[in-house]
Amino acid sequence: MDSLACFLVQSMQNKDSLKIEGVVTESLPNTMFRVELDDGRVILVTLKGTLRRRYIRIFPGDKVLVEMTKYDKERGRIIQKYRK
Fold first, then answer.
1. Which CATH number fits domain 16-81: 2.40.50.140, 1.10.10.60, 3.10.28.10, 1.10.443.10?
2. What's the Rg (C-alpha) of the chain?
């Protein structure tokens, strides 16, 4: 990518979000999950829209990357599933 494209990608990203790894502990209805983060907290998360549209399946025990805002520490969004 050239420097202009890198600048546009960085400026479009949400600067108020935190990205933390975790493990899915429980699957709930309506694409909701409970995830235990690496720091020991358990939060309620949902799937990112692109993961939902691509029918990415998430199961208990899967390692995921969770995006959280700095304003709400109890909820988040799964933005990536790591391969085993």
1. 2.40.50.140
2. 14
